[in-house]
Amino acid sequence: TVPITLVLLGTKLGSAWRQGHRLAPYVALGWFLYIASNILTLLSAQGQLPPEFASGYAVGNLLEGLVFSAVLALRLRQQEQENRNLTHDLNQTLKHDNLTGLLNRTGLQDWLSQNAQQDLGLVLLDIDRLKSVNDTFSTLAGDRLLAQIGLSLNNHVPSEGQIGRLGGDEFLIALPFISEQQLMHDTQQLVNTVNQSHIEYAGQSISRTASAGSIHLRSEHSLTQAMTEVDLALANAKRSGGNKCTHFSSEFEEEMIRSGAYITDVQIETALRAHEFKYFVQPIYRANLNGTSV
User: Which of 70, 86, 135, 157 is most buried, judging by how many CB atoms fall within 10 Å of its CB?
Assistant: First the structure.
């Protein structure tokens, strides 16, 4: 039984060694010490070696124990590193966009939270008429164009900034804030970057323009408020026909409030207190048009 067990263990150990397992040589050393100590003890008992070798069994067991303790410690360290790598990979998956490799909405929120004390410029950028690429060519073409645009934009974002894809055809870029004029200039440069990005698909060159809104994200700003305001700026750029940039400034905000396009939280609270909201219920009736029930 013992020889068969040793053969099976030796076979498995040899297989692990050939596969490159880092701990296999140490395990082999431990087994070698164990077997050698048993052989020495056996030969001493048969009178083929001096009596001093009779203690080889105990010494071998001690050395084997030391080796296997070291192997266990190494294995535990290896397992800890594997767990750290697994956690890192999981975080990468949860916080990154699969298509572009950029941060996703969750990753961007984490980054912005960690940099909440910095003065930043936020740029919300939307690809114009991307749906027409999907409809005319294929969703594969649209995805490839998005990936290329993401790569081009990422190359133009400084190391102190960050970029991510919010989903669909929207990208959010955070830039170190220098001045309102510099932020508007940088926003236009990002739009130009998109305009110059293209892919070759089915023998044709495909590209699209972009629209963008920008805002100065001050440390006292809430991220929710800033995202609402920069979204309004983007919507204004889109309404202007696309391939435009709009900066959310105090003048822009006043114009939006005057036109009724932007209702502030203070206005809503004031209207609630003044009972200015009225609720209407529209009943639904079944109608017949030319004998057809609608």
Answer: 157
Cα 102 from Cα 56, distance rounded (Å): 62
Classified as helix, coil or strand, 53 is helix
Q: What is the pLDDT of residues 46-101, one digit of tens each?
A: 667 666 655 555 555 555 555 555 666 666 677 777 777 776 666 777 899 999 99
Give the residue carrying structure tokens 């431990």: 30
**Model confidence, pTM:** 0.65
User: Is the Cβ–Cβ distance between 195 and 209 less than 8 Å?
Assistant: yes
How far is the CA of 42 from the CAs of 39, 59, 62, in angstroms? 5, 14, 17
Nearest to 153 by CA among 181, 116, 126, 178: 126
* 13 and 23 Cβ atoms separated by less than 8 Å: no
DSSP strands (E only) in the chain? 120-127, 162-167, 170-176, 199-201, 204-206, 210-217, 245-247, 288-289, 292-293
Convert the pLDDT of each residue in 167-186 to its tens digit.
999 999 999 999 999 999 99
pLDDT tens figures, 96-125: 999 999 999 999 999 999 998 889 999 999
